[in-house]
Structure prediction request, 111 residues.
Amino acid sequence: MATDDPETPPPRRRARREPPQRGNGQIRSAAAAARIAVREITALTGRPPNNIVAVQRSEDGWCVAVEVVETRRIPDSADILAVYQTELDGHGELMSYRRTRRYLRGKVSEE
Prediction:
């Protein structure tokens, strides 16, 4: 619906996103692999992601590490965080996941 009112902003258009997979079904980018891993971890744990902490192409697909808040506390520096390591095949199917680390948000350690 068009309007001549200068106060009315034009309708927003959605940004084009690159397809997550090539025509042959292969994941095309690290960003696409990360989006798939986040979706899977969220579905399996019921917890939203906090950060993507690693993405690496493997021989058969992708390895993605996703950080989630496992337990929220007050203050938030006492939150318990966890890192889940996922393995996706070249088509984006989840092959495995496991929690590799748990820690307090306020405790920083160098690895």
About this structure: The helical segments are 30-45. Strands lie at 49-57, 61-71, 80-89, 94-104.
